[in-house]
Specification:
Length: 799
Amino acid sequence: MTTTQYQIRKVGVIGAGVMGAAIAAHLANVGIPSLLLDIVPPDETKDRDVVARTGLEKALKSKPAAFYTKRSAQLVTIGNIEDNLQALAEVDWIIEAVVERLDIKQALYDRLEKILTPQTIISSNTSGLPAHMLIEGRGPSFRANFLITHFFNPVRYMPLLELVPTADTNPALLPFMRQFGTEVLGKGVVICKDTPNFIANRIGVYGFLSTIQRAIDEGYTVGEVDTILGPSMGRPKSAVFRTADLSGLDTLVHVADNLYQNAPEDPWRETFKVPEVVHQMVSEGRLGEKSGQGFYKRVKQPGSPSTILALNLKTLEYSASEKVRYPSIGAARNYDDPDQRILTILNGDDRASVLARETTADSLIYAATLAPNIASNIVAVDEAMRWGFNFDLGSFEVWDLLLKNPSTLEKTFEGRELPELVRRVREQGQGTFYIDSAGQRQYFDFTKNIYKPVPVPTGNITLPALKSANRTVHKNESATLIDMGDGVACLEFHTKMNSIDEGIIEMIHYAVEEGPKQFRALVVGNDAADFSAGANLFLVLMGARQGAWAMIENAINGLQQANQRLKYSPIPVVAAPTGRALGGGCEIIMHCNHTRALAESYIGLVEVGVGVIPAGGGCKELLLRQGADIEHQKAGKTGGPFTPSRKAFETIALATVSTSAVEAQELRFLRKTDRLSVNRAVLLRDAKADAIKLAEAQANGQWQPAKPQDMLLPGPGARLVLEQQVDNLLLTGKVSEHDAVVARHLARVLTGGNCSPLAPLSEQQVLDLEREAFLSLCGMEKTQDRMQAILMTGKPLRN
């Protein structure tokens, strides 16, 4: 068949259930319109689109949110497959996400085949039905344009997208969909062989079922299993049973049954016989989160916090989940590094270590035995497990951890034979599945017994690779300046949670002072999960408790001036936030000339939660972004000087944090001109490209460093208005007394203190107001109590 030039401008999604509606929502997130269709209910005459409408409404209300912002839902058009099927002739990609029954899918394909164009991509979101079975009876064009696109739930947040082609899939389609999935949808794309349940569910469901069987046989409780096999073993907090509840026990049974029926040659086929306890739960409607009870049950009683009950696997009754403690887990929690946590558990001698070793051996042997049958390489297996289940390490990365620690390997696999693939990597490879060669990560190719470079997205940039290539320009314990090439440097923070300390402030000054001597642009970013959790609260609290006011003032002034240096840098500065950028982290972003943010960035000025106000220039910058500068005021664009103060007050006083980078633009933490990336793997690449564009614009006279902006603020009269609002909230019990104290200080800063509404204020004057309010609040016992509560419990104190 001739190569087809594919493009995706509009998509049709058939099936408005949880997955279909969520897929349509994520398409809207990245700006792609879709037509969401479902059936017409029997005897329905008034609202023939009711099923699709209900699906979209549920997506709009879902938690966690399916949409970056609810405005995006305008890109989703609803309909039904009786009246609107012909409209699918106008879309570029049709995603089938209907019920997991082969006969229903094939009947739908029969109807679709009559309206498809030669360029229409058709895919199924099936979680396990083999692709070759789905296309039985279809014509050449349909077969050439068909593949499986298996999204994971929740679609917006789970990185994994499994692509499963058939022998008839057009060779041009797979690379196109991989590129589209990576660059446009922001997914971690894994190519799977056409085997039952593909890669992630094949290994993941085996691991779950083997674990639950061991729990039943050896008397482990639901709570014990999830405590043992959670973060201490490099897995998410939901661990095993909570993950099953989130996915749905009916889904688990369906996947397991599908594997049992369609994988007769699997050596561990009998493991996929679902235990009777799970069958009974499903028959009773205990399906997990969606039915309100599964392995866990949340009980809400009026006037008191909800209680989490756990299922007794023997009696099927619920009881309070008791906290369990084991020496090995206690020791593992002392490490931030997942490798060290896992080794600590596996090397232990308590009940937790026994289960960890048994289940680890089960899953690793299964992965190493099945990998050549279900995947083209070990990288696909590891990426599927990390992206599909949020594991810290993939199966072969855990194998490497054990291969590098022979005593742990022996203890974990005592009495068991190592799989042939493991023996081969020890005898014909270099002893591990991954090696580093000249700063490049390589994997063991089991088809040729040689090492090959690990595939990465085009242009992928990682800071560890740059540092290993001797690109470090300057560093201290808190931050590093790295040469990214092409005249661009990257300022990387690497404190715990990238909290801002003296070292980071020192490096900001260095980067802005020395950077222009050898670079034409600067990126502020890192490879961590979070951009920055803000200022080092522990140091602030200790200083306040010791009365070290000069030290605190110097630290705040240092952050203010460092941010001002970023803002007025002689070369362009581009922020590259991902994850959380809170408090001081948000302030750093707001002072950069441009931002390239990961779409999943949670940005906000949250200082009021610990009893202070933003004092690194956050108040000042939000006022400017709301139009408090003289130019906007004189042009009458903001409705007078009070409007910017009021809007900034509403945002900061509520400690508002964006639920996405798109919402951060709506809140003005990001500019409308800032750019977004949806894939973490290419964020630094994209930030560097933006930096180069600005540098080239500067060279052409089309970009200039920022100039100071004076502001017109409304003064004491407006402050009284805001304070009256605070007093009303206090009288109705909606805020605490100390909330009101903090809000009054905030109101004073945002209205300009004692200024005249006709007299311009400089940026420095507003910074002085910020610093004064911050120091005053730090001296209050209730603020110090709030800081201590956050540090001790991670939860805000309402005092």
